Amino acid sequence: MDYIFRQATLADHAAIWEIISQAILRRKADGSKQWQDGYPNPTVIQSDITRGIGYVLVIGEEIVGYTAILINDEPAYDELEGTWLTTGDFVVFHRVAIAEQQLGKGLAKLLLHHIEEFALQQGIYSVKADTNFDNPGMLKTFEKQGYVYCGEVTFRGAKRKAYEKVLR
Questions:
Q1: Which of 46, 61, 101, 117 has the alpha carbon at shortest distance from 109?
Q2: Which of 19, 58, 97, 165 could form a disulfide linkage to 147, CB 3.0–4.6 angstroms apart?
Q3: pLDDT in the model for residue 123
């Protein structure tokens, strides 16, 4: 199948929010505390899009994945309890979600690959991310894709596991 990875537009908002909503329900069903506090919400997604940091994975005309990508923009990472692998420029991604009907097809791996390609296109060789301790799917994805556990960061009062991958 041919996939397209592109910047999200406001016309994509409803489809993105549906995917995020599905992911919120999956986290809850798994007993996770991640995304159970009203974040993310439609306003966050709209802000991602208008700021130009929202990206979608598309098959044909269907949006099947979403993430937000930023460059050098995660203040919580300055307070890492641990040690990053690098200290220079980095790409950070948040809000990774795959459509319910597309789970198990390797799309999270594909999304991470596109994020890494985005970083390389910017001349950046570090990708950083974090997730809840109780999100085994994302933890497994990080480990399978060569991300290295670097320590803990705190978001909205909760500790999260932080990872980095050095490209090339």
A1: 117
A2: 165
A3: 97
How far is Cα 23 from Cα 34, in angstroms, rounded to an integer? 10
Quick: pLDDT tens for 119-143: 999 999 999 999 999 998 899 999 9
Q: What CATH number corresponds to the domain at position 147?
A: 3.40.630.30
Q: Which residues of the chain have pLDDT under 70?
A: 1
CB 146 within 8 A of CB 113: no
C-alpha dihedral sign at 37, 138, 149, 168? negative
pLDDT of residue 1: 67
The 3-class SS string of 21-44 reads HHHHHHHHHCCCCCCCCCCCCHHH
Report the 10 Å Cβ neighbour count for 34. Answer: 20
User: Phi and psi for 55 in degrees, rounded to 5?
Assistant: -135, 145
Only one residue has tokens 């307070």, namely: 79
Query: What residues contact residue 14 under an 8 Å CB cut-off, 6+ apart?
Result: none
The number of folded domains in the chain is 1
pLDDT at residue number 16 = 98
